[in-house]
Amino acid sequence: MNVELFVYDKFDKSALDILTLLENNSIKFSVQVFTEEDSLDYISDQVGETVRRLPVVVVDGKRVGRYYDLVEFLVNEGIINYQGKS
Fold first, then answer.
1. Beta strands across the sheet bearing 3-8
2. In 3-state terms, what secondary structure has residue 74?
3. By CB distance 3.0 to 4.6 Å, which of 7, 53, 65, 72 could disulfide with 15?
């Protein structure tokens, strides 16, 4: 499973939650960091589809979404057993 996380270089609670979830479950991932000066068009090119906001998670080339979307995806795939926020 190839997990990619796209984030801004400034603190974001949702990004922290995603990082914590992935790390606590020993899921390998890569991170691509953008600045606020990067245009959404440029970020969308890097992600591979139109992006309106970050953070966003992509798994195996398909956009999953943000934190709760990732939790749902991982539960449905049987990768984690979700019993509350990590």
1. 29-34, 3-8, 56-59, 62-65
2. helix
3. 7
